[in-house]
Amino acid sequence: MSSLAKKQSARIKRQVRVRKKIRGTSDRPRLNVFKSARHIYAQLVDDTTGATLVAASTLIEEVTSGLKYTGNIEAARKVGAVIAERALGKDIKSVVFDRNGFLYHGRVKALAEAAREKGLSF
Question: Which fold has domain 3-117?
Answer without folding.
Answer: Nucleotidyltransferase; domain 5 (3.30.420)
